[in-house]
Amino acid sequence: MSQLNKQISSQNRFKAVEVSKQEPKARIKNFKEVVLGYTEEQALAEASRCLTCANPQCVKGCPVRVDIPAFIKHIKQKEYHSAIQKIKEKNSLPAICGRVCPQEEQCQKQCVLAKKGDPVSIGRLERFVADLEYKKGITVQQPKAKNGKKVAVVGAGPAGLTVAADLAKLGYQVDVFEALHTEGGVLVYGIPEFRLPKQIVQAEVNYIEKLGVNLHKDALIGRLFTVDELFKKGFDAVFIGTGAGLPKFLCIPGENLNGVYSANEFLIRVNLMKSYRFPEFKTPLGIGKNVAVIGGGNVALDSARCALRLGAKTVSIIYRRSRDEMPAREEEILNAEEEGIDFKYLAAPTRFVGDDQGKVKAMECVKMELGEPDASGRHKAVAIKGSESMLDVDTVIVAIGRTPNPIIRVTTKGLETLSGGIIAIDKKTGKTRLEAVYAGGDIATGEATVISAMGSGKIAARSIHNYLSKKEESEMLLDELSANSS
Ligand code: FAD
Q: Which residue in 20, 130, 165, 371 is a FRET match for 206, CA 20 to 30 A apart?
């Protein structure tokens, strides 16, 4: 019995196997992945903690309903190929989900072991088998023969890619239209390399392409073709998964000064334009000495940790509530704390001050206190009058949320949208008000998570399949009736 297994059996079933990470001092100087993933020995030890419950609650906590005990059982038996096949029955992006899904709020929260200690590290096990498959080479199950029906998917983020994979497996011809020069959506332009290497995203996109999906890059729907024109081109159904890519702003004085970025612009420059690889890529990003990031979600943390790696001396997160209310993943908050990000809780900016060149040099902040809970149950943040103070900054990154781009809404007649530009859908089917038009992911829910976008993509794919199968049945019936009557 190995040292690690002895440790598990003799010590404590309620303690998860730790995963190795790059040391904080080293990792703040590079963009390489922070979490290194389980070794085979670690994965086997962690898998052995799973009780293979008869009524597994973890599956109920997974928005795409992966058969978690079954894939972990395969790991226990060293059947790694079967383990990844089991996951891919439901989830076409396992290496991505194993890295960025908030498992602590979903499958792992439901694990029975969580009542007494650490839940099974489902995400880390998922990542282990997915990475192993990519190292050995992906195997693609033969999709069903083409059924003659065509579906257009707008947007190649997690929602669109999931719809594409699920329908391709069922025999549909699927064409994905992506506005950018690369697929992945936020996975490539938002989440930084040190949390999600782009090579991993590309490997999972390659898998979807191998399923027979046609990917069209640099194809902005609403300009190249409208949704109506996609039907005229012969598509039988359209799925809209265009995400929430427009940044929200604070609307306070000085926000237009040089040196004040939206997190979208900042992260796109770092990730997509590869400014972190300057001078190899000729896209430098001038980062100041003192950086302030406004917000408390994953986007704020990613921006702050990028700024630190790009050479900022101090990086502060300014968040109007307390640590308990921060929407970012706990694991990432801990990583950011280890790296030396300074968290200023219960504070909010009121104005930015510029120098005579129009560049930001300071920021006025006001202290906040927690008031009554609002409609969402979160405590309101209330400004304390007269508590303003100045903070020296030379770069500010505003990460307070994102809304949908209006292009599809304004170019698609009859598409119903709700406040904030979100497309109205029937949540049980993903169907919009328009015949044969479906939507899912952030465009239909507002900004959420990778796995919730994938979950809504799966619902839409199933509904599109039902709709097109029934349509075919009734068309065949009509043909039969007219043949009989003539
Ligand atoms: P997106 O990922 O936004 O993809 C939409 C795609 O549609 C994009 O590629 C876009 O270019 C394309 N598109 C837009 N308009 C058009 C058009 N008109 N024509 C053609 N293509 C178009 N979630 C987590 O679960 N864990 C995390 O750790 C996490 N961290 C995050 C960090 C950052 C910085 C950000 C911004 C988000 C993070 N999220 C995280 C949220 C998560 O990434 C999103 O909820 C998810 O990507 C939404 O998927 P989607 O497919 O709906 O949209």
A: 20
Distance in angstroms (rounded) separating the CA atoms of residues 321 and 378? 9
Of 97, 240, 242, best ligand 1 pocket probe by most atoms within 8 Å of the beta carbon: 242
CA–CA separation, 72 and 98 (whole Å): 13
Question: Exposed, middle or buried, 331 (CB in 10 Å: 0-12/13-18/19+)?
Answer: middle
Spatial CA neighbour of 443 closest among 402, 414, 471, 477: 402
Q: What is the rounded average pLDDT of the residues 106-117?
A: 93
Q: Which of 160, 253, 276 is nearest to 215 (CA)?
A: 160
- CB crowding 125-145: b at 16 or more within 10 Å, else e: bbbbbbbbbbeeeeeeeebee
Mean pLDDT of 356-375: 94
Exposure pattern of 356-387 as b/e (b: 16+ CB <10 Å)?
A: eeeebbbbbbbbbebeeeeeeeeeebeeeeee
Q: Please, which residues bridge with residue 290 across strands?
A: 314
pTM: 0.93
Per-residue 3-state assignment (H helix, E strand, C coil) for 352-414: EEECCCCEEEEEEEEEEEEEEECCCCCEEEEECCCCCEEEECCEEEECCCEECCCHHHHHCCC
Q: Which atom of ligand 1 is nearest to the CA of 457?
A: 51
d(CA 475, CA 469): 10
Return d(Cα 84, Cα 64) in angstroms, integer.
15
Q: Are 205 and 96 in contact (CB under 8 A)?
A: no
Q: How far is the CA of 53 from the centre of ligand 1 (A)?
A: 34
Structure tokens at 210: 């191998």
Of residues 142 and 311, more confidently modeled = 311
Q: Is 203 in the pocket of ligand 1 (CB under 6 A)?
A: no
Q: Is the C-beta atom of 192 inside 6 A of ligand 1?
A: no
Tokens coding 232: 């005229």
Chain center to CA of 151? 23
What sign does the dihedral 206-27-330-422 (CA atoms) show?
negative
For residues 261 and 284, the answer to whether their CB atoms sit within 8 Å is: no
Res 235: pLDDT: 98
Distance of alpha carbon 305 from alpha carbon 434, whole angstroms: 42
For the chain, report the end-to-end CA distance as a whole number of angstroms.
78
Torsion sign across C-alpha atoms 455, 93, 213, 185? positive
**pLDDT surpassing 80 at residue 284:** yes
Q: Could you give the CA distance from residue 182 to residue 200 in angstroms, rounded to a whole number?
A: 13
pLDDT at position 10: 47
Cα of 187 vs centre of ligand 1, distance in Å, is 7
